[in-house]
Design goal:
Chain B: InterPro entries: Bact_solute-bd_prot1, SBP. The complex is a heterodimer of chains A (304) and B (435). With 304 residues, chain A is mostly helical. Chain A is built from 13 helices and 2 strands. The longest helix of chain A has 39 residues, at 9-47. Chain B is built from 18 helices and 12 strands. The chains are: A mainly alpha (304), B alpha/beta (435).
């Protein structure tokens, strides 16, 4: 049987029959993908070309939302804040995670306990409770200042000063080094011991071994962690939302991209603009990721 | 194959089960859709409000009593703090699943009414489903937008300034005079600072109302005009911000970082309650909540400072109830509102939770039930209400205007802009939004 499209339907039917069970089992996921990702993304792409306040129907305005961003000082500020956050938090967090995992990888007794303990902050790191805790720690009368006072330094009001607020959030991000640490640990286990033995015989010191064996052998893992953490950092929302009371203050110093997007969408009812912002963020992350991938040829070492 | 078949069947049955569960949820809703008086049939309506834990307890009990009286109506409750409340409602209304009865406020009502999200209540009031016979004309009018009733007052309130006489006595500072001017206010703040306590927190920015609104109105202007334009001149804003800037430079009010830290603090932790400031602007109905936080002294309320030879700034504030346009049970929703604002069982619990009851009869009824600070609040409201003049409703885009107000005020606070620069920037932004 040949249908107008020139496809043999009997083959199609048999293929369908063969795969029906697979599709059935996949269906929860497929439905989820469609309902929770594909359709909303399509809608948001459409809204990004409209003026839409959620109450009246969207009005097509072409690229106006996108061109409006360039002239929006708060938008530019939010990019500046987000880039600062990404540039500081990701390298710091990764170095910290690498350092801890190298220390943990020295055949410590009770490794499992340490590993679990150091992972704990990551478990609730992005949560509201911890963001609130941060407010307490770095507030004007917070623990950090009490500690500083005990050694004779007068602390500032870290969270409420425009100059320092973002750095408290960076510290919060670094503190959640658990998941890259676990991945690094797994990576470290995968480095053959012979390499270190050979280096020992050649008389290379620990430092030399770290830079000439450990680091190069870990570069694929570093690449993976780098990309995952950068994407995560671009999308950070909760800490800034809670710590600044949803405002991105003081003086927009913690106005993360996603926070501004949220304000535009749910406080100012500018769904169109917010959708356009979401797509611009997607493009930005895609570019950054592509650049890192392109550069990886120069610095990632695959053992083959 | 047999094993496989049983697996297949069990999978199908799970899918069916989910589908059935989904249907049953939908059908119960549609079955009750027609329920007019709802006799015999179970009807479910949803009611949302903003507030703190205390209020949630009170409103839950009121709803319980309503359900007892009307066993065929079930009221689902949704509540949260003020900012989340509005964000959630905006999303719900847009998504077409807003609660039937929502708490409303003057600052937002025009926005929702003009976007056709709220039910025009004229018919339900005329038919007597919602009885407003005992309501003051001014109170009824305060629930109208463009001449139509969109909301019914739960309680009305007025803003004032609270202080603790015990503290003033201890410091040896005389109490604020009820007929004070903003100059007196500034002097009082400095006087308090000289005794070692900040006079007040920094109210220069934040929300547009009530503080700046009072000032604008006293200067013969308002936040907005009736046709939705900006209602005040740049000079007024400069005067307002300069006054605060001056106090800040003299360190009579907190610095920027300290103010920011307390910006979103809950009542129990704000600067006034924690003893960092001596005077605080509050809505009168919250006086008793503040009083609970003070072991020593009985708090007093004074009206707003005046502008010399200026006009009255006073306007009625309050909390209201509205029915959303898409409500499937407007009749039951109206019954609920009527119960909430007119039934003794309800007012007995409400007392003056969000202001003096809208119904004059109920305001009399709750009087003997009130604690001293609540009584004081009612006296204050009744004393000031005659000075109140109507206030123009906020136009579309008010949230963005408020954001610009906040942003530019903090730019001054942190020394990023001078008062003139900030006022300039604000006017440009606001006029751009409200064009």
């Amino acid at each position: 049987m040949i249908n107008p499209w020139g496809v043999d339907t009997s083959i199609m039917k048999s293929v369908l029959r063969k795969n029906a069970v697979a599709y059935l089992f996949l269906s929860p996921w497929l439905i989820g993908l469609l309902a929770l990702s594909v359709i909303p993304m399509g809608a948001s792409l459409y809204f990004s070309f409209t003026e839409y306040d959620m109450f009246s129907s969207p009005q097509w305005i072409g690229l106006e939302n996108y061109s409006g961003m360039i002239e929006d000082p708060k938008y530019l500020k939010s990019i500046e804040v987000t880039l600062t956050y990404v540039l500081f938090s990701v390298p710091l967090q990764l170095s910290f995670a690498l350092g801890v995992s190298v220390l943990l990888n020295r055949g410590l007794r009770g490794l499992k306990i340490y590993r679990a303990t150091y992972y704990v902050p990551s478990l609730f790191g992005g949560s509201v409770a911890v963001a609130l805790l941060w407010r307490q720690l770095f507030g004007g009368e917070g623990l950090v200042n009490k500690f500083l006072a005990s050694i004779g330094i007068e602390g500032a009001n870290w969270i409420s000063s425009p100059d320092t607020a973002i750095y408290t959030l960076i510290i919060l991000a670094v503190w959640q080094f658990g998941s890259p640490m676990l991945i690094f640990l797994a990576g470290l286990k995968g480095i053959p011991n012979e390499l270190y033995e050979a280096a020992n015989i050649d008389g290379a010191g620990k430092l030399k071994q770290f830079f000439s064996i450990t680091l190069p052998m870990l570069t694929p893992i570093i690449l993976f962690n780098l990309i995952m953490q950068i994407i995560g950092a671009f999308q950070a929302f909760t800490p800034a939302y809670i710590v600044s009371g949803g405002e991105g203050g003081p003086l927009d110093s913690t106005l993360f991209y996603t926070l501004y997007l949220y304000q535009k969408a749910f406080a100012h009812f500018q769904m169109g603009y917010a959708s356009a912002m979401a797509w611009a963020l997607l493009i930005m992350i895609a570019i950054v990721t592509a650049v890192i991938f392109a550069s990886s040829k120069k610095w990632v070492f695959y053992q083959e | 194959m047999n094993k496989f078949r049983s697996l297949f069947i069990s999978l199908i049955s799970v899918v069916l089960l989910i589908a059935v569960a989904g249907c049953s949820g939908g059908s119960s809703e549609s079955a009750s859709k027609s329920g007019g008086d709802g006799e015999g049939k179970k009807v479910e309506i949803r009611f949302a409000w903003w507030g703190d834990t205390k209020r949630h307890e009170i409103y839950n009990s009121i709803v319980d009593r309503f359900e007892e009286k009307h066993p065929n109506i079930k009221v689902k409750r949704e509540f949260g703090g003020w900012p989340e409340y509005w964000e959630k409602m905006a999303t719900q209304i847009a998504g077409g699943n807003a609660p039937d009865v929502v708490s409303m406020h003057q600052f937002y009502v025009s926005d929702y009414a003009r976007r056709n999200s709220l039910l025009n209540l004229d018919e339900l009031v005329k038919s007597g489903d919602i009885n407003q016979d005992q309501f003051d004309e001014a109170t009824v009018d305060s629930g109208k937008v463009d001449g139509k009733i969109y909301m019914i007052a739960k309680g009305i309130t007025m803003s004032g300034w609270a202080y603790n006489p015990a503290l003033f006595d201890k410091l040896g500072v005389s109490y604020p005079d009820p007929n004070w001017t903003w100059e007196d206010f500034g002097k009082k703040v400095e006087e308090l600072k000289a005794k070692g306590i900040w006079g007040t927190q920094d109210f220069s920015g934040g929300q547009l109302q009530p503080n700046f609104r009072y000032f604008a109105r006293q200067n013969g202007q308002d936040l907005f005009t009736e046709d939705g334009k900006l209602g005040f001149e740049k000079e007024t804003l400069i005067k307002w911000w300069s006054m605060w800037d001056d106090l800040r430079k003299k360190e009579a009010i907190p610095d920027g970082a300290t103010s920011t830290e307390y910006e979103s603090a809950p009542l129990e932790q704000n600067m006034f309650v924690t003893g960092k400031t001596a005077m605080h602007q509050i809505p009168a109905n919250q006086l008793h909540l503040y009083q609970e936080q003070f072991k020593e002294g009985e708090l007093e309320l004074v009206p707003y400072p005046n502008v010399k030879d200026g006009e009255n700034g006073e306007y009625i504030e309050g909390a209201y109830l509205s029915i959303t346009q898409k409500s499937k049970h407007p009749k039951e929703a109206a019954m609920f509102i009527d119960f909430f604002v007119n039934a003794k069982e309800s007012l007995e619990l409400f007392k003056v939770e969000q202001g003096s009851p809208g119904s004059a009869e109920m305001a009399e009824f709750v009087k003997p039930l009130l604690s001293v600070p609540q009584q004081k609040a009612v006296d204050f409201i009744q004393e000031v209400v005659p000075d109140a003049r109507p206030a123009a409703y906020a136009p579309l885009g008010v949230n963005e205007v408020e954001q610009a107000f906040k942003d530019n005020a903090s730019a001054i606070i942190f020394g990023q802009h001078s008062v003139d620069e900030a006022a300039d920037k604000f006017m440009k932004t606001a006029e751009g939004i409200l064009k």
